[in-house]
Amino acid sequence: MVSQVIDVRPAVSAAAPPPVPSTPSIVRHRAGFWIVAFAFVVAMAFSTAPTPLWTLYRQRDHFSTTMVTVAFAAYAVGVVVSLFLAGHVSDWLGRRRVLVPAILLEVVAAVVFLLWPDLPGLVLARVITGFGIGMITATATAHLAELHAVARPDAPPLRAGLVATAANLGGLAIGPLVAGLLAQHVDGKLTVPYLLFLVLLVGSAIGLFLVPETVPADRKDGQPYRPQRIAVPATERIRYFAVAGAAFGLFAILGLFTSLAPSFLAGIGQTSPVVAGLAAFGVFGAATVAQLLLGRVAPARQLTIGIPATTLGVVVLAAGVLLSSPAGFLAGGLIAGGGAGVLLKGSLGTAAMLAPSHARGEAIAGVFLTAYVGLALPVLGIGVATRLGVPLPTSLVGFAALVLAMMAVVAATLRRHPAATA
């Protein structure tokens, strides 16, 4: 999922483009840019495609809300493991040599969804999906930046960043909508969505073989492997931990809408897969638009916008839960999604600014570690609560209260420890 929520990790160091690229090289790099963007969209959409289908699985197999949260948490575990074991190796192995196997992992996950649709198979497929997404997000972002530098050497790099953001968050938004529409209107509700993505993923893998490599060949030799490190900046640690806490909270919101929102909507009579898909589409779509509109704003300003917007969204969401109002629940998701998109951008930008240049990647990795714990842990807590007999609406209100408390602590901490340049 969000992974890479949503993933705006800074692109790993880009290879220097040739001083004077030839016309055929420019054409290949331009085509390659859009092939990578398409593969990025497809992979991210596939990662959230199961969202509107969870209710259908529960109706078919009669497993509990807790099991939905376990299957969802398995995805987050896969992403975290992949990020720290393989998310950075394209720096020396090459972008294409990482992207193709990562997309093929998504192909394997789609096959598992189709051939083993019982709960153990769903969990396995989600873990494999997470492995692939952890490899794809940073690698595709870096590849887009490098391809753009060759294809349009005189253009600013902003376009590549905007396309990467749109592909990442936009893909996360598209997946539930497509799956929900298919589940609503076709007979094979739990097979046709995966068949479609299987075809798109295979096509993406084939297309990636045609994309130019952007990592110099000499960088691939003699580079020792090491896992991704995590470094907390020695200076201004309190501010760093505050933005990490913000990432925890906003990923918890995104995790809610890709795991338990369909169950809540079904509980108040909204059983349509399209409605469940639209809920997740709205949240991620709002995050995408917010990042695109406010991407140039300074990180400190993004934090001051994102925290109150996210807080307001959670309040509206909680009101929708208490009133059993689908409209209030969805409206809260839209507001919180927009706030979360800006808040994520500000959190990562702040972490990068606080760290020395040689440790920015590690600082960002630390924020993402906290974020993915936020993606899985609160949702698992809701699952355990419902297992113990707490009604799902009550659990969701408790979840909202915890997120609000965390946002209040983050806001107070950032006020007491403002940016040095503010």
Descriptive notes:
Residues 2-18 have low confidence and may be disordered. The protein has helices at 23-48, 54-61, 65-86, 90-93, 95-115, 119-151, 158-185, 192-208, 237-257, 261-267, 273-294, 299-322, 326-354, 360-387, 392-416. The chain has one domain (23-416): MFS general substrate transporter like domains (Growth Hormone, Chain: A, Up-down Bundle). The protein is mostly helical and 422 residues long. Helix 3 packs parallel to helix 6 and helix 3 (65-86) runs antiparallel to helix 14.
- Specify the structural class: mainly alpha
CATH superfamily, please? MFS general substrate transporter like domains
Structure annotation, total helices: 15
Number of domains as seen in the coordinates:
1
- Percent range of helical residues: over 70%
CATH-defined topology? Growth Hormone, Chain: A
Give the helices and strands as they follow along the chain: HHHHHHHHHHHHHHH
Q: Radius of gyration, Cα only, in angstroms?
A: 21 Å
Stretches where pLDDT is under 50 for at least 5 consecutive residues are 2-18
Q: How many beta-strand segments?
A: 0
Mean pLDDT across the residues is 87
Can you name the CATH architecture? Up-down Bundle
Approximate strand percentage: under 5%
User: What does the overall shape look like?
Assistant: globular
CATH class: Mainly Alpha
Intertermini distance = 34 Å
Largest sheet: none
Pfam families: MFS_1
Keywords: Cell membrane, Membrane, Transmembrane, Transmembrane helix, Transport
Organism: Plantactinospora sonchi
Membrane topology: Multi-pass membrane protein
